[in-house]
Amino acid sequence: MADRTRRGFIGGAAAVTATAALAGTAHAAPRGAPQQAGRRVAVLGGGVAGLTAAHELAERGFEVTVYERKSALGGKARSMDVPGSAKGGRKPLPGEHGFRFIPGFYRNLPDTLRRIPFKGNANGCHDNLVPSSEVMLARTGGREDLRIPFATVGSPPPLLTPDALLRALTAYCETFSRLRAHEIAYFANRLLVWFTSGERRRLESWERVPWMEFTGAARMSADYRQLLAIGITRNIVATKAEVASTRTVATCVEAFLHNALGRGADGEPDRVLDAPTNEAWIDPWTAHLRSLGVVFHTGWSVTDLRLEGGRITEAVLEDAGGARQAVTADHFVSAMPVEHARRTWNEQVRAADPQLARCDRLKTDWMTGIQFYLTEPTPIIHGHINHIDTPWSITSVSQAQYWRHRDFRADYGDGTVADCLSVDVSEWDRPGILYGKPAKRCTREEVAREVWAQMKAGLNDTGRPVLRDATLHSWFLDPAVELDGTRANNDEQLFIHPTGTWYDRPQARTAIPNLFLAGDYVAVDIDLATMEGANAAARAAVNALLDETGSRAERCAVVPLYRAPELDPFRRQDDLRHRLGLRNVFDLG
Question: A Gene Ontology MF term for this entry (predicted)?
């Protein structure tokens, strides 16, 4: 795999040296803290879940060592340097697995951000969040793009020129004139049914019903499917609306709508960071954790967990050069993505806890980013763009406009790059418009050309050259993706949520008393593979560890999603109706 070749500690003598260093520091106590029995924790994985677990444990006096298989920390949330792109003393161009989106309905992750010191910020890294003021649905075929404004504080309002106003009015008329009145009424009714459904119906019924079926998409118009059944979810829910359960999608749609109404929110509905992720968040976070005594080892993959006497006694790690090392600890927090974590659970470990074996049924898919670097500022809009008609399900955001303390040309690359258009590609198995092939059958270069062509098809089709080939400097595709036109591999996939997935998701606490699970696949309230889900799962894992050890330390707050209290009577009534086998009172079928 591409990233493995860039890990540290490779080669014969280097591997021996690294093994000795790993063995020598695996049990080092935090600086200034006395070593205590039963306080050593090995956190296996250095993404958001692993760093959150390390943060919470270190603050409670535990001796924490984090092991990460990549050469850098942060997991899929990290940003990374584009190789060979720095000139004239500037930093390399910033690449990433995918753009950051931190909506205001997140409550646990923002708390962590506030607790990470950042020079000049009263609220730590949280002050590096910047709200967007609008979102765009980019249409193809000459239809005007639909721009939807947000009421935000501190972000610039959408530019209102006569041309912009005319285009906005045209877009609204085109969009909603194509939706039939009964379709709009039906979709509104389906949301009302969800909002008033009790927890029993949500879990026992709607978890088993596909979102597309719940919304009646198959019998509605193409615009209904694109705009409401699919499009409304793509910016809010990091999953595939075509296969996802109603419970997963509707949970986040409900949270987003409450957020837009100013109910139970940490901030604005659409927020991004004001710098590359590592600069704004990951690097300050790891520096803070080191100050708390956390020790990091990168470039080491977990290959096995050994069970003796009903407890995990050691984790077996391997570096890129094949050197192996057994690491011992009192407690183990498995904070790897599910597709990597389950490879470390041998038959003995699985037999000790059946919920681990059920994780084999959890599914992952490709949702990966590519960045386009432009020689002219190209903000397009002050927010995210849903390229709603693209066969590869593309979303994007122009990032330089948010980096308020950065001068892109002066700070990054070769001095000619002025903007970064960061794009997420969510569909890799459908043919594109340029080569007629799915992304998985393209080369990396073909993927870049195809994504660029699909975006231009939506943004340039009404007479304005929004994206121009002459301004395209270069592109960067996530190195976790390996493509040669015939073979495809993705080392960093995304956990998705087909119907029934909830029943196979594990709890943070396992039947093995010193093994705890943290990751976006663990069952938490948000029910979605997100940074918020990873953060909440890590908090739950730490709380389980504290309970297991009998610690008197304060438990981590795990804040659930907001529910409108005035709808509680309807939800209680619906629980009764569900037990009696009756529909929701508002469900018209």
Answer: oxidoreductase activity
